[in-house]
Please model this.
Amino acid sequence: MIVLNIELTMKQMENKVVLITGAAQGIGFATAKAFAVTGASVVLADCDKDLINKAADHLNADGYKTLAIVCDVSDDAQVKIMVDKIVATFGRLDIAFNNAGIQNALADAADQTIEDFNRVTGVNLRGVWSCMKYELQQMRKQGNGAIVNCSSIGGILGAAQRGTYHGAKHGIIGLTKSAALEYASRGIRINSICPGLIHTPMADKMVADGQQDALNTMLAAVPVGRLGRPEEIANVVVFLCSDAASLIVGHTLVVDGGYSIQ
Ligand code: NAI
Model:
């Protein structure tokens, strides 16, 4: 009989090499910290050089094992270089959280620009596609690995003026399920996570951009009655990547305080 032992699960993380994109702040940084405390070696990747170096320095100062890499996930060549650097440094890649994402400029479908569509899908959809591609090239050589892709409740719901973001986030779920089927029998599990409203710099930016009323309306419909905390997503990502989740394959895990069940 296998008994779920959280301490043992965390211990199994100790020698893992973990990549997190969009790790400079918000959900990505909280997840980097959650993996770091297990003793894993954590690669923090982000397109913002100053922020990612500060984030890694912060964790290093607390004695954790980290490596900062500057990478724009919307650039396929940079993603390849990032994964090559991880393998050159650590010899392997065990876990990846493809988290980097951005919001679209609010506009009706008839008024959205090709530039904004390309910008948002380039990061949120093609970025995840590139990351998975190079991560899987390494993981299939190893014969093991775990990947979590960051979708959103925008990946399962619609919202006026947010079609580009929601379209990309729906796409992540399709990429995840398809790849999960390909690799389930080869020791690699791939899942996606759908956070609800989480208090991060992204949410603060939405307020600064004049979206306070829209956020308040959403918040009023969150059954737990509050914004989520980045750590509440981080914990779920660590669980999904652990052996405790060994039978969870191609799943879309919604973590939204009950918002989307209504
Ligand atoms: P955030 O804006 O606070 O942090 C995102 C990080 O990604 C930043 O450090 C940023 O520099 C980095 N980034 C942006 N574009 C990048 C690129 N091209 N390459 C590499 N790094 C890049 O965002 P937050 O809130 O932490 O969101 C993380 C993920 O969670 C995103 O995919 C977002 O769509 C998703 N999400 C967030 C929700 C929320 O309420 N905060 C709700 C649902 C999903």
Summary: DSSP finds ten helices and seven strands in the chain. The mean pLDDT is 96. Residues 21-22, 24-28, 46-48, 51, 71-74, 99-102, 123, 127, 150, 152, 195, 197-198, 200-203 surround NAI (CB under 6 Å).
